[in-house]
Amino acid sequence: MATNMIVRTNQSDATQSYASQPTYYVDVDIVNDRLIWTAGSALVYQHCGYSPTGAQLDEAATLILATAVEVVYCFLDDVSSADKLKQVIGASSGNNRYVFCFSFDGATATEPTLEAWDDNTHSTAVLHVLGNGTPANSMVHGICTTVAPPGASWTGTPLAASSKVNLNNGAGPLAVATDLYGNIYIKIPASYPTPETSQPVIAVRYTYS
Amino acid sequence: MSIPLYELFFEDDTLHQGGDIVSPKWRESPDKAIRSMRVRLPFGDYLFLGGYEEYNLFIETVANLYGAKGQRLCYIYAMGREGNTITSYRIAVSDNGKYKTGDITVRKYPRGQEYDGKPTSGWHKGIMKPISGG
Q1: pLDDT tens digits, A148-161
Q2: Which of B115, B24, B88 is nearest to A3 (CA)?
């Protein structure tokens, strides 16, 4: 059998794993659902009951400031639910361990990785949000929290192209079904000169046999 | 019945047909010494590997969380180990801007560094005999 992965997001308490509190998590339908990083607004908020339009999301965009600013909210637009927008609890630079859960139902041949790219070809990373060609400057930060919390005000790895996160904490391929965890946030540098509306592709690469 | 993604020819002259790209069933292959392996390429040709001490085969996929929908199958990897050298045949199964479907990239790596500088799991033993040796 092929090994499959289910992405889950924490909706309740980032101190609880999926194994201990499965009802705290919601499965992400990666074909129909979407994640939204936003500053939020009167029209874009938790349990708003609809999927925001592009114009609504533009109005809820994070503003570039004279100091670096972290995008406040990560929502799951759970299109199959009545609530629609559900906040991903703990998706931030805070010391939050159980946020994004990657549940594998079997072995892998290599270690799964969390990555960011310009688009679905997963071949380039030159968007401003991904560092404008310099991965170290990516505004998207990721970290593996499979074995431990990330620590307060963590910086992790700037995600862009080959700058990626090993989700098994560097321990290599999965031998059996395993839940891996990570956290992600987006932070815009102070006075960044180029506003951008972009949707970088954040993805998990894995192998099966 | 679909055409198998790979076939294994064993030391005892038996044949095993694998699954498809969605479910290769490599890990369920019989635990017998492999004489050679035949991998079906995206456009119907075949790649033969033979004479290795160990073989491996797996599929690489990318599941999108944000910015794009769904999952993309990227590559078939077929590998053979001879001593401390691993020969990797990476076969593209989708276009990605740099590689087109069917492109094969062949590289040699030190054992334990065969995938992004790291080891892989799922190896099956082989026998180092000529492919045509009966």
Answers
A1: 999 999 999 999 99
A2: B24
